[in-house]
Structures are given as structure tokens and as C-alpha cells.
Amino acid sequence: MKTKFSGILTLLLAFVVQLSFAQGKTISGSISDEDGLPLPGVNIIVSGTSNGTQTDFDGNYSISANTGDVLSYSFVGYKTIEKTVGSANNISFAMAIDATAIDEVVIEAFRTSTKETSNIASTTITASTIEARPNASFVQTLQGQVAGLNITTSSGQPGANSTINLRGVSSLSGNTEPLFIIDGVPVDEDNFRSLNPNDIESLSVLKDAGATSIYGNRGANGVVKITTKRGSYNSGLKITYTGTTSFSTLQNHDYNLMNSREQLQLEKDFGSGFGATLSDTELDIRARQADTNWLDVFFGTGLSQSHTLGLSSGGENVNSFTSFGYNDTEGILKRASTLKRFNFRNNLSGKSSDDKFNYATSVSINYSESNEPNSIGSGAINRNFVLGANQSVPYISPNAYVAGQGGNIPVVFANTPLFLLDRLDTYTRREDEIKIIANVNASYKLTNDLTYGASIGADFTDEQLLRVEAPTSFNAQLFAATGDNTPGFSDQDVTRTLAFNFNQNLTYAKTFNEKHGLEVSLFTEYFKAHLRSFGFRQLGFDPATFYPGDGSGFVNDNANDDNYVDTGRANIQNAGLFSYYAFADYDYDKRYGFSATVRRDASYRFSQSNRWGTFYSVAGRWNISNESFMQDSFFDVLKLRGSYGTTGNQRIVDAVGQFAYFSGPDLTRDLFATGGQYGGQNGIAVSQIGNNELKWETVVQANIGLDFELLKRRLRGSVDFYKKNTEDLFINAPIAGSINGGTTGIRANVGELENRGVDIELHYDLFKAKKDGGFNLTLNGVTNYNKQEFISLGDGGDIPFGNRVGGPLAEIYAAPYVGVNPANGNLLFLDINNNITEDLQEEDQRATGQNIYPDWQGSFGLDMDYKNFFFTTQFNYTIGVERYDFDYSGFIDPTAIGQFRHSRDILRAWQNPGDITDIPSLNATNLSDEGLSDRHQRDSDYVRLRFVQLGYALPSNVLDKVGFSSAKLFVSGENLITFTEWRGFDAEALGASQNGYPTPKTLSVGLELGF
Amino acid sequence: MKNIYKLIGAFMIVSLFGCNDAIDIEQPGRLGAENAFTSVADLQAGLLGAYNFLDTTNEIGFTAAFTDESTRGRDNGGQNVNIQNFNLNSGNGYVSNIWLSYYGAIGTANRIIAAAGSVDSSEDQTAYDNILGQTYAIRAYSFFQILTYFSTDYRDDSALAGILVTAPATDIFADVPRSTNGDFYAQIESDLNAAAGLITSNTNQTFMGQDFLTALRARMAAYRGQYTVADGHAASLLASYPIANQAQYVNMFNDSDFTEIIFSLERNRNDSFDGQGLTGGGWAGSLFAFIDSSAGGGPYMEMSRAVFNILDGTSDVRLTTAFNAGDSTVDTGYDGNNNYLNDDVLLVQKYPGSDGQPLMNDLKVFRSAEMLLIRAEAAASASNFTAAATFIKQLRDARLGTAQPIPSYANQTEAFGAILDERRLELLYEGHRWVDLKRLGDMGGRAIDRDAWECSFLAGCTLSNSDFRFTLPIPLSEVTANAAVQQNPGY
Asked: Does residue A975 form part of some domain?
């Protein structure tokens, strides 16, 4: 620490050196870089004096000095050279790059180190790759940027929760997502919709045990540490503005869907549905009257805008950063899907003038309003808008829906789009959220080497959920009780969570004999979280005074019927963790390093079984390039790292969002609950069978990595091999329903799951300009290979058609579908003995070794700039993803003829004996067997142009005229092109739900201004 | 240096204080199992909890779709397609629901029985006895349902039934093998006797009284082929539960007439079954339609043509109740019409709804009509064909509203055949057909009898009564967890 600080001072001095007229003997010369090109701006100083100069644009200089004086030549990023003035009047030479001088800061758990002295596997992403992207949640932006971080977003809802897995999925039923820490506050990793991505300064993904085991109880899935922007001391007011406007549209599908005429003809030919009732002439007329592509009705262009204004300034002892953000994002599902948010952030730092006391606060207050449709992915024809868009028959016109007349729509499946048009008009589902993340931290140097620090933080979320079904709506009328003329319901719920975190530490850091660096820290951490929720369901609205969310139209219970009996609900839950831990780091001469962590954790979830867990790690490094024998090698940096250690997971049940801290709070207990009503009276029933042996899930991870920079830093990268074993896996272990009162599963620790693989990160400067405005081109590549395997499944062993030892997670069990029987049009499969059969049995399903998780995933792309233009691309890819295409199975389902839309593929259906085709007879009698087969299993690998951006930075001469300090204009695209065999809208979505909400492709234009 | 000591001191204090505060958290509103049963009132609450597990919609839905009672309806979106095609495996939802709901009831009953001993019964001895008695009755009925659906042969005491569990599990991970029918019958008898000795009152038809016990004995004896016993119990019940006339019959299915009801499971607004249950577990009527039994109610399972063609054109009140004549569209040319799904819409109305809630009705478990048909079976079994015919005539007179000719049966096959035909109509959509074909089909020369046109779209029109699918598979969840359980043949 100390040496680094003085280094910075030297640099500052070098910059502020005064230039002076030449005196005495004049030394001149020219300074070049390693390639022999002139190096302008090199500081030259006569040691021990204030006499100095700089090289000019051509690398030439002259300075007066006396013989025997020492001239010091320094330039940022290059090794400082000292030359003694002799008889020669000319001193010219080439400067050498100093790899260590521009050492990047590495963010670790509770400290920062440098790339040279860090022992951990981590990747840091900076603001430049996060800012101004049109994704409402920054997590989506992260996709593909970090080796091993697999992010999938299965919903096009703005700000939707993404699934985030680091180095594979490490738990079966427990939490599998990394811990997110924003400015020292652990936060809900599922909900970033209210946060402003433009506030982020840097984001570090901590991967190996050496980095994460200090987080013990929550580090099992890795840690993502986010730092937001701050001001700097002694700086003037700086104002930045970032604005983007985006246009999102539905990605393409390749289902070859029928138009109105084709759909009607299919119905007529098959003899089912509306088409079957029409004569040829009538059919022709109808096909001309209505040919609706319902995708265009329910989906459209989502227009979004985002504005962020940032102000930073700093004085001698205090600095601040303040930002205001406004974002209005429309999802591509018209009207039903929006997100609006307002953000405020203030980050303040201060210190005493003797630098002994430092403090910082980070406060962000955020408010968002979103309309988020529910029932997406379900088969509810009256609730899932996407089902209406995908599957509605084209021969119905949207004009057939009359606003306000929902109750009169004839109830048949073919009217699906009309039910949903009515729902768009009459259903409200809004979430209003206040989210506050605040942190105060302070440190005091007790002595030169000993520092006390404390950090208090909180993540507060208040969500108000409003769901209202209007009294005149189709759905309300449909399910109204007999005689209920004022139906409809309103659910209003408020859920408030506060997660509070208090961390204290004592740190001793000292360098002995300039070569032995030692740092030792002791910590305690206290975590407490509280949930309070309440809400009600009101039944019945008077249409005359109805307004969603307002009580004027509420109809009260009466003596005649039970149509308007309202229900109330409330919930209180508390959670807590307590830990103490220690960390030590030793460095020898920047050549060898060693660190160790030990941590004791207690969780409220195991308070009655195994409350304490102990986790540890050891990590070491060897800076090979700092060894004397490497001085002349072409490696600028070569560092070998290794770590081994454990982390824990106490989130037994993988609950989402606000509920995550509180799920499964006392699974060790046998509980009864009020309920089980019969005969109009309340009863009690067993609500939980306890497992009094529950304990921590432990991830044991070994990591070996190599960091390298070579060819004068033009090729940079790292390779990390890891093996991550989850022991005492949280599993919903099967128990016999017969002896356990109908309960078939219990949360237990069973078995072991292994993830092993490699993370590779490479950057290569293909073109590196010699001077400003030249052509730069950097190629980037990030990849991860991960293989999953069950090592053990405990005493219970393999689960039929489920997990098996040696198999991957969520393995697909299916019998091969081999085609259509030319004799009768039935489906043909292979039974378990590989004989062709038409009659598939359950036991014919076999383990395929395939699942929805990729074997390979990552990205490649380039960053280019020339003069004032800059251009970036990022292609993401996954290999080894298998999914079921249920959308397609719906489009070729003959039993849906007359109800839903079809793919033209169905026209290839078998008709006569001898037909050779890939589509079975529409009357195939074994169609229902396909559910046991791989008929609709598809390869969902893809390469996608995830991001492309072209920008222009205004040159300084223009800026001077308009009064800006910087200005950038850019256009960018997200998900513009996808190469895949997947026929659906979105190859990326995890899982296989039918009629899900696809992520959009987005075009945006933006502007960044600095004042 | 003083500061350091202060801080280290603060560290220690926070450590000790923080530790307990953050870890020892009792969530509010928890009722630990150890405190669940401390009074007679607690036992009563537990009893209601046990009743709440009893639900015959799974049996009704499965039977209607698997046999010949119902067929694919106009608004079918894939519901029941597997079992309509005789695709039945251990992953089936009905199968698992039947197993788990009765074992839920058994588990709750076991907990009540185990806890009852430590509750002070002198608080209210009568209430205590009645609670415990009903608990035994629930357990007996649940064991019998398990046996009925999972045993290969009711008349074979050495065939396997389910798992015999009579106490709360001490080892929740234990592997327990299946017991034989003989063991099951013995346990059921024992529970029935215990119940009979405790229950003092017949509260009403929705709580288990002495008559419930008798009805269960009658049905069990009939299934076992012990017809003398069955006949005695059935006869005794018929003395107090007459056969409903046409008007009473209609009202019985509106839940407003209880002439014939010996026991039914009550279904109310806002209870745990008040909702759609497309594969059981909700409104009984929602096994057939999404919304209500009208034309716009989303019929996804309709009355099969096989049943409709028998009843059509008669004055049989069973057509009036089971079929919504006003809203249905009857296409006389359905046979051969490819668009019959849209043109021939036969709406099931057996569960029209009650208390203003469409599709929600009490689940009829024991009715006197079943007792009458048990008497007919007993007579046929004793080759007393005239008596059998007289019982059938008695039922048909009541249902058709006019005196019907007395049938005549030349032999047992004819008699059992006629009884099966009558049971098919009388107990339509009440979850009997599959069991009846299994136990009497071969004796009466009857099998699943689907309409030829409707079943031309399915994998089969009929199935041998000895097919393995006339015994349900042990559900996958049980097989997975219980290594000792033996799967039924064929699965």
C-alpha cells in the first residue's frame, strides 16, 4: 500500500513539473517507443532539481544540464530510465514498456489488490461496457462478458429476472445464483429492475474459493461485487448526461405458420372447426375478410427512453457523486408490459485531513412502476397474451372484439384472441416498487498499520402489487357465481423487506524489509432480514364506480349469498445470519503470494440442527514473470495461481426475489397449520414434516489459473481450470407418501454434484495505433466449458427418470422418435431394446446425457476505433443446449385443428399407405405417446449478435465551440441476428415453456455529454 | 492503544449479542407438532383436517375418461388424452392423487389416534368418543379406497393391497413393503369395530355415523364376494334410506334433497376444494367443463355417445340430471361426421353447482341406490334371478317414473350383465364404472363399451377386463422413495 501510494505521488510530481529556459550545457536527443516510433510528452528531469522538460510531438527534446547530472526520463506506462550526463550532447534511446506500472486494481472481497498481487480468479467489468445499453436490468448486459457466468433471460418483460449461474448450476433445490453486493450491501439477486445501470462504476465477478470463501455462508455460487460511481477529491464540478432511445421488436421465428385461407382449408379438409362448416365460396370470402397475424396484434414495437444525469465534484476532504435517472421501457407485448423508473443516487466520501479517518456513504433511492403480465407460459387461453399471439387462428378479426362487451364473447377455444383483447382492456397487474440501498462505511487508522473498519448497509424493498379484474371483463363474467351481476376481483398486496447488514473489521497491514508484505484481518458480520406483508382480495365491483386500485366500487358481503366474501392475508417472517472470520495475505517481493481464509457461520435456518458451519480457503500465486530468469522473455506478465477451499449455501429452497431470505425458515421442525376446512369449520393439518438433520450445503472448489500478457501486452488473457463439488446437496429427497401422510418429499442433504470446466478470457490488439486517432482493433473472446455430473445420490440412489449417478443435472429422459410408419401413419419410436415400436411405455425412456445447460458458452467480438469513430460487436454463443420445442408441437398438433393456428408443416401429414413423410397422420392413434419421446427435443445452440455499437465522439475543436467537455453519439443493437437451428422466437430462453414471452431485439440511439 | 481495547471489547459484545438475536428466530404463527393435540377441541380440529383429505373427484375424473362414461369434448385442449388412449403409467396425476389423498387422511388419522391417548377425555367424553370413532372410520374408508384402486383382485386375500400404516412414522425414510388384502381387510374390520364402539350419533350425512360404517361394510363385502354379509348390511340401510323419486333425484344432485344419501363429502364456498380441478381436487363439475355446464361453459369432456344413446328418448331422470338437454347440441348424424366435436356437443350436468357456485357439488359416496344394486348382486350371486330382477325393476321404476316391465335373467351372466348396465347409468360420473368392470365385467360379459365413431379417434374402443390397467400402478413418487414397494404387474 505504502509503496504504491508513493508511486502515485511521483507520477503527480512528474506531471506538474515546471518547464524552464535552458541553461549551461544543452543535452538533446529523441526518445522513441519500443517500435522506434517517436514518443511525445516524455518527462525529463534533472534529478534533484526542478529543471525539466518534455519531448515534443516528434519525440525530440533538449535540456540544459551539467556533466555528472542524472537525467530521469519518465512516461506513464513505461519504465523510468535514468541517464548520467557524460561528454555526449545527444542522448537518444527507446523507452521500454513497464507492465507493472499500469497495474490494474483487482477488487476482492473486503480489499483491493493489484493484478500482480492478487491470488484469486476474478473478472472485472467496467462502466464502459455497461453504460447506455438499453437493457432495463444490468444483468442482461453482463451476458457473455465474463467467462463462466451463464446468464439467461427467459422473459421479454423489461427488467425481468434473469437466471445467473457461475461455473454451472451447483445446487438442486437450493439457491444457485451468485451473491450480489452493491457498495458493500448484499442485495436481492433477482430484482434489479429498479436500479440504474448507468450508476455502476465497476462490477467484479469473484469465482474461485480463494475469492469467495470469505463470504462463507453465501459464497457458494460465486460473488458479484458492484461498485457505483464516486467523486474524487480536489476536482471541479463535472456533469455528465447519458440518454438513449430504443426500439424493441419481436425476434423472428421459423415456424412457417398458416394464413387464414390455409388454416380454414385445413379445418375443412380435416372436418373440424369453423372451416369445416364453410362451402368453398364461403371459405374464400372469409379468408379475404380476415387474415390476422395475431403476433402483430399482441406484439409491437416497444419504445423506450432512458436519461441519466450525473454530477460529481470534490473538495479537499469531501467528494460526492449524485445521479438522477429516468427510464421508461415498453415491452414488446403491447400495453401489458412496461417499466418506468426513477432513480436517485448520492455517494459521498470524506476524510480527515490527516487521512486517518475515512468514511463513505452510498444511498440510492429508486421507484419503479411496472405492468407485468402473468400467466405467461401457461395454457390459459383467457390469460396468456403470448398464447393468443402465437396460436390464435388467423380467420378471426380483431374487430370482432367490442370493447366493454367481453362478457358476450362466445366461449369456444377459437375465440382465444378475443378473450385476450378483452383482458388487455380489463385486467390490471401493476407492481409499484420502492427500493432503497444504503450503506455507510468508515475506517480509522489506529496506528500506521492497524485499521478498524465498519460498514452498515441495508436493502429495503417495498412492493405494492395490484391485480384487478374488471367487473365487465370476459373473465369476471365467465367465472361469476350464479346470480352475481357485479363480479370481478381486486388483489392488493404490500410486501416490505428490509435486509440489514453490519460488518466490522480490524486490519493489520505492514511491509517488512520492503519484500515481505503482510495483511491480516479479523471480521464479524451480522445479518438480519425482515419481511412484512399484508393484502386482501376484494370480490365484487359495481361497474358504475369501478376504478382499478380504488375502493369506490367495492361490493360488500350480504345476507343472501357468499359472492362477496373478502379474504385478508398477512405474513411476518424474520431471517438472520451471524459470522466471524479471518483473512491473511502474505506477499514475498511480488513474486510469491499466499492467502488464507477461515470463517465460522451460523444460520437461523439450522438453529435447531447444525447451526454452525466452518468454511476455509487457501490460495497462492507465483509471479513467474517477475523472476530474474524471465526478464528477457516475451511475457510481460505470467502468473500462476491456485486455490482450494469451501463455501456454504444455507438457502435450502430456491425462492425468488424478496422471499429468498425467508424461504424454508424452519424446515427442521414438524409443524401443523390452521386450514383443512371441512363442513364449514376450520381444522388443522400437518403442514410440514421436519428434517432435524438439515445442514449446510458445501461447495468445495479447486482452481488453477494462469494470467498472462505477452507481445508487449498486445495479447492478454487468463485460463482457469476448476473443479467444483457440491457436497450435502440440498435435494427435495423423496419420501414415501404412504407412511408420511401423503408428503412425498422432504428437504434433505443428499449426494454430491460436480461441475468441472475451464474459463478462458483472451484479448488481442490486432492493430494498435501509434498515436491518437489511429486505428485500433482489439479482438475479445470469452469462453467457458462446464461439465456436470452427479458423483453420488446417497442411499436412495438413482431416481427413476430423474437424477442418476454419472448423469448431468436435469437430464432429459426420452425414447428416440424415428419417424412415421408408412403403412398407417402412426409414430414410430425405439423401445428400450432399440426395437421399433408404435406403443411406447414409460420404461422405454432412457437417459440421454443431455440437458438445458450449455457445455460451452461465451462470446467473441471486437472493439475498434479510428479517429473519432468507435465500433464494438459482441457475439454470444452456447453449445450443448437441448430443449423441447413445445411451441412447435402446438403448431403441428392435429387435435388442435379448429381451435388454434398451425404450421404449414402439418400439410405434409401422412395420408395414404405408402406415404413417406415426417409428419404423422392427423388421426395417428399413438400421438399421445410422443410425450415419452424426443420428437420435439431440439438443439438450441446459437450464435447471436448480442450487441453491436457504432459511435462517434465529437472532436475537441468542435466541443470547445459548443461548450461541452465531451460528447458521444452512438447507435447500437441488441440481439439483431441469431444463427440457430431453433425455430422459435428466442433460442436463449432457459427451459421449455410453451407460449413464453421472448426477449426482444432492440435498436437504440444514444448520446453522452460531459460538461 | 486504549481505543483498540474498547473496539475489541465492542467486537466481543456484538458477537455474543448478535449471535443469538440473528440465529435463534422463532417464526410467528407456528404450531409445533408437539403442541398440536392437547385438548378435545384440538382433536376435533384434527378430525376436520382428516376429512379434508377425502376427495373422490380423482376417482370420478379417472373413471369417466378411462372407461366409456365420457369422451373428448368440444373445448378439449389436451385434457385426459393419455387415459382416453389407455396410456396409464406411474406418473399419472389421478393415480398419484388417489394414493396421496387417502394416505394423507390415513396419516392424519394416525396422528390423532396416537395423540388421543394423552388428551384428557373427561373434558367431553361424548365428543371425544365421536371424534375418535370418526377418525377410525376415515382410516377404514381410506384403506379400503387404497385397496380398491391398487389391489389386483379384491377376492384374493393374498393379493397385495397398499402399505399398511397405523401409526405416525418413526423413520420417515423407511422402506415399507405392501401388505396383503387379508391384512388390509383385517385392519379395516378392526377400525370399523372400533368406530362402531365409539360413534354414538348420526350427525348428518356429511359426517361419518353408524350408517356410514354399515354402508362401507356392505360395499366391502360385495367387492369381496361375501354377498350374504353384503346383503344384510344393504338391507338394513334400505330400511331407513328409501330410493328417491324423480323429483328427489334431481334435487339430490343440486344438494337440496338427501333422501338417498347415506354419506357425502360436503363441498362449500371457500373451502379447499372451491376451485377448478381439471385433474381432480376441485369442483367435481370441473372434471368435465372449465366454467359451468352450459354450452359456453367450456365443455372439454362430454357425455359419451355410448351412454347417451342408451338414455336418449327415455324418461329416465338419470338423463335429466347427468345431461344438460337445454344447452347441448345433438347431431343425429354424428356417426361419420368429422366435425362431430363441434356439431355434437353433449354437456355433462351431473354436477351443476350449488350455493351459486357452478360445478361445485357434494361428492356422493354412499347412496341407497348402490345398496339396492348390492342386494341385486347378492341375489344374482345366489342365482336368485327373480329377486335380482325385482331390485332392478324397483330402481328403474323410480328412475323412469313409471312402472317398468320386470326383466328376466336366464343365468348369472345375464343377471350380472344387467346389474352392470344399471350401475353404469345409476352411478354415472360417481367413480364406479372402472371398479365395477374390474370386479364384475367378466361375470356379466361386459367390458368398456365406447361408441364406435368416438373411439375411432382413440387408441382403442375397449379393453379386456383382465388387462393390467384395471389395477392402478403404484405412483412414481412412492416407487422412487420406497425401495420395498412392489409395483403392480404390467407397469
From this structure: no
The mean pLDDT value of chain A amounts to 90
How many CA atoms within 13 Å lie on the side-chain side of A975? 25
Of residues B464, B423, B286, the one with CA closest to residue B360 = B286
Domain boundary among B358, B379, B403: B358
CATH number assigned to the domain comprising residue A12: 2.60.40.1120
Q: What is the reported pTM?
A: 0.87
Are A127 and A199 in the same domain?
yes
Q: Is the model's pLDDT at A263 over the cut of 70?
A: yes
Q: What is the three-class DSSP state of A266?
A: helix
- Mean pLDDT score, A155-159: 88
Tens-place pLDDT, residues A799-811 = 888 899 999 998 9
Q: Taking a contact as any Cβ pair under 8 Å apart, which residues of chain B between 108 and 147 contact chain A?
A: 108, 110-111
Domain with A70, as residue range(s), is: 2-94
Total number of domains constituting chain B: 2
Task: Closest CB to A672: pick one of B36, B477, B479.
Answer: B36
Q: Is B203's pLDDT higher than 70?
A: no
Number of H helices, E strands in chain A: 11, 50
B81 close to A (CB below 8 A):
yes
pLDDT tens-digit map of B310-330:
999 999 999 999 999 999 999
Q: How far is A562 from chain B (nearest CA, A)?
A: 7
Q: B186 Cβ partners below 8 Å, 6+ apart?
A: none
CA angle at B284 for the pair B278 and B285, rounded to the nearest 5°:
80
Amino acid identity, residue A712?
K
Partner A contacted by B75 (CB < 8 A): yes
Q: B218 by DSSP, 3-state: which?
A: helix
> Taking a C-beta distance cutoff of 8 angstroms, is the pair A887, A903 a contact?
no
- Is B99 within a domain? yes
Shortest CB distance from A666 goes to which of B30, B46, B74? B30
Q: How many CB atoms lie within 10 A of CB A129?
A: 16
Segment 325-384 of chain A within 8 Å of chain B by CB: 379, 381
pLDDT(A609) > 90:
no
pLDDT tens for each residue of B27-56: 999 999 889 999 999 999 999 999 999 999
Range of the domain at B130: 39-73+84-201+465-491
Report d(CA A724, CA A701) in Å as an integer: 4
Establish if B141 belongs to a structural domain.
yes
Question: Could you tell me if A659 lies within 8 Å of chain B, comparing CB atoms?
Answer: no
Of A191, A210, A232, which closes a domain?
Answer: A232
Q: How many helices (H) and strands (E) does chain B have?
A: 19, 7
A179 strand-pairing partners: A223
Residue B318 forms part of a structural domain: yes
Q: Are residues B56 and B172 in the same domain?
A: yes
* Confidence tier at A103 by pLDDT (50, 70, 90): low
Q: Is residue A25 part of a domain?
A: yes
Between residues A100 and A725, the one the model is more confident about: A725
- Where a domain ends, among A35, A66, A94? A94
Q: What is the DSSP string of A497-521?
A: EEEEEEEEEEEEEEEETTTEEEEEE
Query: Which of B329, B358, B387 lies at the terminal end of a domain, its last residue?
Result: B358
CATH number at residue B105: 1.25.40.390
> Of the candidates B18, B52, B297, which has its C-beta nearest A676's C-beta?
B52
Report the 10 Å Cβ neighbour count for A981. 11
Number of domain units in chain A: 2
Nearest to A270 among B44, B50, B338 (CB): B338
What is the pLDDT at residue A128? Answer: 80
From chain A residues 559-618, the ones with a CB under 8 A of any chain B CB are 561-563, 565, 567, 572-578, 580, 602-604, 607, 611
> Do B45 and B185 lie in a common domain?
yes
- What span, in angstroms and rounded, lies between the C-alpha atoms of A737 and A714? 63
| Chain A residues within an 8 Å CB radius of B10 | 504
